[in-house]
Every structure is written in C-alpha cells, then in structure tokens.
Amino acid sequence: MTSPDVHRADPGPPRAATGAADGKSSDRVFVVVPAYNEAPTIRQVIRGLRQHGYRNIVVVDDGSEDDCGMQAREEGAIVLRHVINRGLGGALGTGLRAAAMLGAAIIVTFDGDGQHDPEDVRAVVGPIAAGEADLVIGSRTDGRRGMPWYRRIANHIANLVTRVIFGVRSSDSQSGLRAFPRAAAQRIRISSNGMEVSSEIIADLFHKGIPLREIPIASIYSPYSLSKGQGFLMGLQTLGKLFILRVGGGRR
Fold it and tell me: Does the predicted model carry a pTM greater than 0.70?
C-alpha cells in the first residue's frame, strides 16, 4: 500500500504476533470502515483487510458524492449508506451498531483513507481476544519519524484537551484504529457527529470503568490521506465541540 511519496511512521521494535488473522479466529471480527468520498482508496483498503483474513467488513458510506459505496460493495463489503453526510461520529455509530447486530465478537474501526496498515489489526485485536483489555487503540505516535510536524502538534493538543476535559491520558486520542469486544462497543454512547467522536469514545468508556490500552502501530502518510485529516480550522472547531460536549454531555 506504500508508494514513493508515502511516509510511513516507524512502528518501533518488532511486536510479537497477537492472535491469528486467518481461519475461524477472524470469523467474528468485524471491521467497521467509515467512508466519505473515499473512492481513491476504498478498494485497496478492503483488499488489504481481506488479504489479512478479515472477511466481515462493514463500510458506512456517509453520504458520499462519489462511488466509494458501490466500489466497496463490489469488493464484497457490507455497505450501509447515509442519505446525507452525518460526519465521523454518525458513521461510527451506525457501523458499531450494525456490527454488533450482525454477531461480531470483536469490533475494529479502521479509517478508509489508506492511513492504516491492515497488519496492525492483529495487534489491536490480540489483547481483546486474550481477554486482557476491553478497549485498545493503535497509537501512531510511538514512531514519529513519518508523521508530519503539524500533525504531531495537532495530536499533542488533542491529547492534552482530552486529558484536561475528560481526565483520560492518551498518546494518540485521535487514532482511527480501535478494537472493542461487542459488550464494550454496545456500551458506547455517541452524541457527537464530527471528529470529536474520537475523544468522546475513550472518555465515555473510561468513565464507565473501561480503561484504555494502547498498542504501537504504523501509519501510512500519502498526500491523499493527509488531505483527509483535520486542518487547523477544523481542529479549532473540534476543540470547541469538545468543550461543548463536556459542558452539555455531563461527562465527569
């Protein structure tokens, strides 16, 4: 999935494999992919996941104006479509509920822009499958060499805000690669529609007694994936929404 103009963050020292990604071990792992205008990458994302043994892929086409939903369906994914664009929070909420209803034992969220390496799904699923954790996030900040400086600054600010507002310490609160057992996923209450949902999820579960565990992962940075992330103005909007969420949502 890499190309000459792609920067890949160093994931740190080699990790021991945690859980197999083939055969029956992945039959009840459902991967939820929120997608908004991801036609340039959605096929390679789905193919990469399937090559690693993940057959249960739920793509939430969040009111896309391109044909990413059709492409996902052609690749064998389960496709759910929002008639209008509801935002990342809305897409994740729809995907998590659908995966639970379809019988998932473990639910993984995975970005549709090609930023994540499908190999890292194994890493975040491992502690869940072993019963060692109920919330695992793939942290992209253990290896920083491939992460652009402005993304590192944005991440630091988001992590600080998540800690100050919600009391949760995280090295990568905005990571889109997460894993939960179905029971934990069903306890998540999502009230936001935008990017602030990433902080909301870990804060909501933390205050329900489910601590966060982080696993180092790689990140694949391309001009396309960088264009899909939060810019400066969107980051400020997310910050404001997090404060509103804290005040209005009754988080401790």
Answer: yes
Question: Is-contact 58 80, C-beta < 8 A?
Answer: yes
Nearest one of 96, 181, 187 to 130, comparing CA atoms: 181
Cα 50 to Cα 36: distance, rounded to the nearest angstrom? 21
pLDDT at residue 149 above 70? yes
State residue 91 phi and psi, 5-degree precision.
-65, -45
The answer on pLDDT for 169 being more than 70 is yes
Residue with tokens 């549709």: 112
Higher pLDDT, 241 or 213: 213
Residue 200, SS3 per DSSP: helix
Task: Give me the amino acid identity at 220.
Answer: I
The pair of structure tokens assigned to 162 is 């998540």
Residue ranges of domains in the chain, CATH in brackets: 18-247 (3.90.550.10)
Neighbours of 131 (CB within 10 A): 8
